[in-house]
Design brief:
single chain, 398 residues, alpha+beta, Lipocalin, 12-stranded antiparallel beta barrel, 8 helices, disordered N terminus, LpxR, Put_OMP_sf, Lipid A deacylase LpxR family protein
Length: 398
């Protein structure tokens, strides 16, 4: 969904607004989070235990006790357009560590039957969320859209996730259940918003993809390599070295990591296999697997150990990142059309890639990230070589 033309001057203005918002939000968080728990020297020096330490001996007690609430907003406003994937939002919650899932009866039996997520010694979390995606053709002014343009479509869904992780690898299995079509209420949301901002109204929603119950089953695995190679002063002996300076300790907090991933989705909404890589660098780097877009089974940015600044009260953290995700696509209902009846459709591309870059800021238990996404052509008759959108993610670890 686009904003009025006078607000579309440049990407730099948009990013500046995001930075201003982040400063206000994170500044306010300082006061509200002042009572958060701290990791003490005694915690770091205590001999390893089998349950509350990583393989490297880093405590995990506070990270295990910390659920996360996450809000996602994705919009092509940041790309200066109003077409293709035009808007998405999701609100999700991830539980604290459940050890052995802590379910009973058929629920426990069901979870224990799932692959990948029942390895001994992993932190285990359950997540729930609700989201909506909106797709429009490139020309929204036509009451009868061009049949060679992508169809109008909406997707509203609930998702249920089962996550198992260590500090080095994480597996996520997600089930999405929802509705594609008029009862996703995507047309109502977009029309209301454009009326609110006095923008051009989308005229062709009468030709959207029809109602269809949607189901996706998704899995994704992430690894975290080279993590914290130059972080955490105590890990480098500065705390016990009487000759170390504050500059030495600050320098030791700079770090980087590489986070490759693979995954697959099977369903009548989406069916694809994907693989990619994200690289991050910054100060006080969070101990997690990065921030994903709103793709199925994208991992939530939840702490894995007590060196994470969101649980150890380490003040500010900031980092930059870049990444790529490639997909081999077998089905995309938003391009292929309805599964069991005729609808508008276009010829999709079988290979699509997202190139991403952005920044993140952490203040105590709050994190804000901005991601710019450049997506390659998704269908044969798409005008231009790519589509652009931005993603803003905020999370609260409590």
């Amino acid at each position: 969904m686009s904003i009025c033309p006078q607000f579309l001057s440049s990407t730099s203005i948009r990013v500046r607004r995001v930075l201003t918002t982040s400063a206000l939000v994170l500044g306010a968080a300082t006061a509200t989070s002042s009572a958060s728990a701290q990791v003490t020297d005694a915690d770091l020096d205590r001999p390893p235990t089998t349950q509350l330490r990583t393989a490297d001996g880093v405590p995990t007690r506070l990270a295990r006790q910390s659920p996360v609430l996450i809000a996602y907003i994705e919009n092509d406003y940041f790309g200066g357009t109003d077409q293709n994937y035009t808007n998405g939002f999701k609100l999700s919650w991830l539980s604290a560590d459940l050890s052995e899932w802590d379910r009973s009866g058929w629920q426990q039996t069901f979870i224990e039957a799932l692959p990948f997520i029942n390895k001994a010694g992993t932190q285990k979390n359950i997540g729930v969320g609700f989201g909506q995606h909106i797709y429009t053709p490139e020309d929204i002014s036509r009451p009868n859209p061009d049949p060679l343009d992508r169809p109008y479509a909406g997707w509203a869904y609930f998702e249920f996730s089962f996550l198992a992780k260590t500090d080095r690898v994480a597996d996520n299995i997600t089930v999405q259940l929802g509705m594609v079509g008029p009862h996703s209420y995507a047309d109502d949301i977009q029309t209301f918003y454009h009326e609110l901002i006095d923008d051009e109204l989308p005229m062709g929603w009468d030709y959207q993809i029809g109602d269809e119950l949607g189901v996706n089953l998704a899995w994704e695995r992430k690894w975290r390599f080279y993590a914290r190679t130059v972080t955490a002063a105590d890990r480098w002996g500065f705390r016990s070295n009487p000759f170390s300076t504050k500059a030495d300790q600050d320098r030791a907090r700079w770090g980087f990591d590489a986070i490759p991933h693979i995954g697959a989705v099977v369903g009548n909404v989406k069916t694809y296999a994907n693989a990619g890589l994200t690289v991050r660098a910054g100060y006080n780097l969070p101990s997690d697997f990065g921030v994903a877009l709103m793709r199925p089974a994208g991992l939530a940015a939840s702490p894995v150990d007590d060196l994470d600044p969101r649980v150890r009260g380490a003040g500010w953290s900031f980092f930059a990142f870049g990444g790529v995700d490639g997909r081999a696509v077998a089905r995309d209902i938003f391009l292929d059309g309805n599964t069991f009846k005729d609808s508008r459709s276009v010829d999709k591309k079988n290979f699509v890639a997202d190139f991403t870059y952005g920044f993140g800021i952490v203040r105590n238990s709050f994190q804000l990230t901005f991601t710019r996404v450049v997506r390659t052509k998704e269908y044969e008759t798409q005008v231009g070589s790519n589509s652009d959108f931005g993603s803003v993610t905020t999370s609260w670890t409590f």
